TrEMBL record, chains A, B:
One of its GO terms (biological process) is carbohydrate metabolic process. It comes from Phialocephala subalpina. This is Related to DUF1680 domain protein. Residues 447-506 form the Non-reducing end beta-L-arabinofuranosidase-like GH127 middle domain. Residues 18-429 form the Non-reducing end beta-L-arabinofuranosidase-like GH127 catalytic domain.
Length: 696, 696
């Protein structure tokens, strides 16, 4: 059984206390767990499994996801409790976990059923609306919590009830004539079932996950029709009766059920659902290779995942790793539709969706070691995931706009009614080191693939012998990464080190250097690197070993959108970090930087700044730009829409220095909520056929 | 009673047979009336008033608007029959009109009710869904048809039934406790009622129109709630039960009923409904000044119309005079959201909506003589209205995209299931001269305001004396406009001539010239012109009198979008005409001109071309541009969304000559359906504070 899940492997890593991620995990331990526990209590979620009526239930569907809010917190708490921490604080968290487990156990029906909403608010309506009402989604999160709980507490107090619940669902859903031919409207249970199978070997869990994935989108699943259609008809719904998130009737693409997954050509619908679904699909491929008699049987699903990944990254992803341009269905728009803000036509980029991007990238890396997945995993992590939480761990962002606007200033909040993101961040930071590296052990041969760089130590047990690999680095601010390997001489360790797609060659032409230099006989040339596992360089581990990237790799660079996006803007990036400007550094801004432009030939200046919250340094970037002073352009100009070319030559502009900070760092220092990532571009140069460059 | 409606005044004008508009009206007379009659017959619409079942009725709501399709054709036919034409052809049309009137009369219920759908398809459901089912909309179009019929046939065979129907509706709707406090979901009846009042003096018509306008959007109209909510509840609908055009529940903004008109700050929803509604609102203001004891009582509605007009023109209108960026609700998006094509995120710009823009502009001109209305009326007429019909009068466009895309090539069609646009064009061209000029007569003082220029003669009866004003011009291709006035010496004629907003000064600084020059003592300076009725110059009529604009006024010019649109494109215009490029003139194009760029400093070349369909000449414009040859930019570039600045410098471009034709002329000469209005802009220059120009 392959148990390479971040949730299973994270405990093999210890972060260096002064490292970038250790500081953030310490803040979660210190502030976030407790803050979120208090909110769970004050909002009624904590006591919900006591099955009493709560005023929130008066408002129909408001408490639909409470099971999952509690489960995600509980899951995260168990990850952090696994490591040494403040004793007094841990006692509080530990007590809460135990009390919650007791309550959850007591809320289970004799037949195994376990769900708040259908026990307290709508009893008697079990499994009548798996499309909209998150019943199986909640079950999935409870299973994930149970796995985390068992891992830490070494008991089955939460896992046993979930295994009982699994049996009920396994009996209810499936291909049999008496069974429901349905699948979760919000995927999550599928990925949880596969992890449950990997931990316990329970074949019902695998079977059910496989059924949910392969049956999904079947247009003739029930009586020759779509399951969701028949399910809705049974509820007495009419075709015109539909959820608010569906723009039109029969929008099954909202939950990626408009056609079978194998036939889906583009990534559509609710972005969190899409990511959770594909995480399960890609993981099913991996598990199927062990389980099925024909190990290639489900490989067609890998092709589907690759196709949908490529569509997403190339045509539907923001530079920040955010996905989902459309507010109404919290999801994907058409190809290349990537406006930066609500007042430009959209931008949602939910924090949970980027967590989903990381999850999917991690599963894809298990199938194919390729930088195309790790690069995006790192991009999402450092920008839209990390940026979803404030430096002090107490405030959050649900949406990750690339620009603010008057109706949506850039401001963080304590919590949300639909509270998926905050506890999702907690549990993700809990297992973060599980995303950093993966390892395989065959006899005395060990391969460690390093996807993310940070100062930390991985400890492996190789046939009873201890192998440790330590990284030291200043990442994400710069390289090198120095590796210290401690392994018995009988063990052969190969290290695959990721070469980021944004790395730039040294002056001598190599894209990276490994020292001692004899480790690097062919040099770090791009050509060579493309013939290996794409985006990784592979070395026999020696200690110490230093991986370096050129200074240019960590210099600010400018990103351009694909021209089909109609986003004629420049975005500043540095290493894995996307940058933005905020009014707190640029107090002259009045219009969310809408009328501020920069040139792609602008010179950057870097300043090292100090953040007192985490006592760390970060790089601020200063870029000269132009600020339009004439406000006529934003008032009515005349009798016609738009204006004539040449008009803007008469508008005065002021030269300004625009100060940029890392996108994740926004919303931490007060201000008026003016923020922008992409700035209008002033220049353009093109190369002519037959040579020569055209400049207007 | 003021009867200045285009429908009433058009017959005072005779077009010069060789003029731009006479040729098009002749085509409608020759081809369109007969073609559309044949389609009315073949689709079942013609015989529908015989009240037999038709297979189209099987499909629920498909035939909801059939009354209006017939009515609009009938209305248009009567306008054209009023003028001399081909005898044989006219006999066919005349016979059809008479037969239709007989059938309509025979379809009326004894109590006056008259509607196909609720007589044949859903009897017994009268007035149970005025929000969605077009019952009152159809009534409005039948009233307009009756007015046109009475005008031509001088009998009341169609008007009498409509007056009887009016009494039924007037009894049914109103403020009384037994009455329905509702109003049409699709406005139209309101504007028809006001014209009916103006023609007949029927106070019930005025009262009902006023009620519909003033009650609209009342949030507590019935039992403390919105009328549409109560109406839907009576039908047994749930909040989640909604039309496909509503993106979310309770989207009353779709029909401009989300709040009272006086409280609406921005123009929202279905664009045809919005235009028909505001046409009625502005006309109600005019009529109220005659009817009401306090003639200023409804002037607040004028302010509302002005506010919504300005929002529309400045923030929600395409350069073509098209409105409505959003496909789903055939209407307005957020401010400045004006993508050019479906694959850029939207573009609808329905032909009927631009006809509505003309109607509203005409009513606003009745309230305030201002070029701001006439300019937009002309813009819509020459581009999105005229462009809705092919040169031969047999093919149509429902949507007026500014760029084609693979899923929506630029192709015309014979007809549409929802057939509002084709007969709407017929009737609009029928009364076109009614939009050209308006006149007021007080004793022997006559004022003629000329809004549109074309070779035509207006004949007025001034106290029994005949006054004629003739225009001769090559408009829209150039000026001058020469006026010949024939009036008895006892009559004083003042002529207000429109100065288009796009006019550019002569070299000597004047914006226009009137000769003989003694008529022009202060010169045509902009300053002077702004102190008069804005956008008009006023002269005591002499004959001949010549109004000239500079050659620069009719040279091609480039239009820029407001920067908040994110449309970094240049659009070619010339006089009132917007230009586009088609593959039929540019056979190298493969990608709908997506990768073709131009510079605002590009030099234009004009070529006179011949159109054989109408035997007329038009101006083609050639603009040098760059075509990107490298297709990598449209494939996946790497591991990341977008790419790094500098990359595009390596892409090769080819210099091309792009041939542009008037937008209205597109889709007349075959081709593959590649078309575009706005081309990506290559250059930009800005002025710095303190002087100097910054060029990258």
């Amino acid at each position: 059984m392959d148990s390479s899940y971040p949730q299973e492997t994270f405990h093999r890593t210890t972060f260096e206390p002064s490292s970038f991620w250790a500081k953030r995990r310490a803040i979660v331990r210190k502030n976030t767990l407790r803050t979120q526990l208090n909110i769970l209590k004050s909002t009624g979620r904590y006591d919900a499994f006591r099955l009493k009526w709560h005023p929130a239930y008066d408002d129909g569907h408001k408490a639909l996801f409470w099971d999952s809010d509690v489960a995600k917190w509980l899951e995260g708490a168990c990850y952090f409790l696994a490591e040494e921490g403040d004793e007094e604080e841990d006692a509080v968290i530990d007590h809460a976990v135990k009390e919650l487990v007791d309550m959850i156990r007591s809320a289970q029906w004799k037949d195994g059923y376990l769900n708040l909403f259908f026990t307290v608010v709508k009893p008697g309506q079990r499994f009548t609306n798996v499309r909209d009402l998150h019943e199986l989604y909640n079950a999935g999160h409870l299973i994930e919590a149970a796995l985390s709980h068992q891992q830490h507490y070494k008991n089955n107090l939460l896992l046993d009830p979930m295994l009982q619940y699994l049996e009920l669902i396994h009996e209810k859903f499936g291909p049999g004539p008496e069974q429901l031919h349905g699948y979760p409207g919000h995927p999550e249970m599928e990925l949880a079932l596969l992890r449950l199978y990997a931990r316990t070997g329970n074949r019902h869990a695998y079977e059910l996950a496989k059924y949910f994935v392969t049956e999904r989108g079947n247009s003739h699943g029930v009586q020759g029709k779509h399951f969701y259609l028949i399910e809705a008809q049974k509820r007495g719904e009419r075709p015109s009766d539909r959820p608010d998130s569906w723009p039109t009737a029969d929008s099954y693409w909202y939950e990626q059920a408009h056609k079978p997954i194998l036939e889906q050509e583009t990534i559509e619908g609710h972005s969190v659902r899409a990511m959770y679904l594909l995480t399960a699909v890609s993981d099913l491929v991996r598990q199927s290779r062990i389980v099925e008699t024909d190990p290639t049987q489900l490989d067609v699903y890998k092709t589907a995942c690759e196709r949908l990944w490529d569509n997403m990254v190339n045509k539907k992803m923001y530079f920040t790793g955010g996905i989902g341009a459309i507010d109404q269905w919290e999801g994907f728009g058409i190809d290349y539709f990537l406006p930066q803000s609500t007042d430009e036509g959209g931008c949602y980029a939910e924090t949970c969706a980027s967590i989903g991007v990381m999850m999917l990238a991690e599963r894809m890396l298990q199938l194919d070691l390729s930088g195309k997945y790790a690069d995006i995993m790192e991009l999402a992590l450092y920008n839209t995931v990390l940026g979803g939480m404030s430096q002090n761990g107490k405030e959050f962002l649900y949406e990750n706009h690339l620009a603010s606007c008057p109706a949506r200033p850039s401001k963080r909040e304590d919590w949300f009614d639909c509270a998926c993101c905050p506890p999702n961040l907690t549990r993700t930071l809990g297992i973060l080191s599980g995303y950093m590296w993966s390892s395989t052990i065959q006899g005395n041969d060990v391969t460690i693939s390093v996807h993310l760089y940070s100062s930390a130590t991985l400890t492996l047990d190789v046939g009873g012998q201890k192998v440790t690999l330590k990284q030291e680095t200043n990442w994400p601010w710069g390289s090198p990464v120095t590796f210290f390997l401690d392994a018995p001489s009988s063990v052969n360790v190969t290290i695959n080190m990721r070469i980021p797609g944004w790395a730039k060659p040294f002056e001598h032409g190599m894209l990276w250097e490994v020292t001692p230099s004899h480790l690097n006989p062919f040099g770090g040339f791009q050509k060579h690197y493309l013939t290996m596992s794409p985006g990784y360089t592979s070395k026999l581990g020696k200690s110490p070993m230093m991986l370096s990237f050129s200074p240019a790799s960590f210099a600010p660079r400018m990103l351009l959108h694909h021209p089909a996006t109609n986003q004629n803007t420049l975005t500043i990036a540095r290493g894995p970090l996307i940058y933005c400007a905020e009014d707190v550094d640029n107090n002259w801004v009045q219009d969310h930087f809408k009328t501020v432009s920069i040139s792609s030939s602008a010179k950057f200046e870097e300043i090292i700044e100090q953040d007192d919250i985490l006592d760390e340094r970060y790089v601020k970037i200063i870029v000269p730009g132009l600020r339009r002073l004439d406000t006529r352009l934003y008032a009515a100009i005349g009798y016609f829409p738009g204006y004539e070319a040449g008009y803007e030559d008469y508008l005065e502009n002021q030269e300004v220095d625009i100060k940029f900070i890392p996108y994740f760092y926004r919303g931490n220092r007060g201000g008026r909520g003016h923020m922008r990532v992409g700035f209008r571009r002033l220049d353009q140069a093109v190369k002519l056929l037959g040579g020569g460059t055209w400049r207007p």
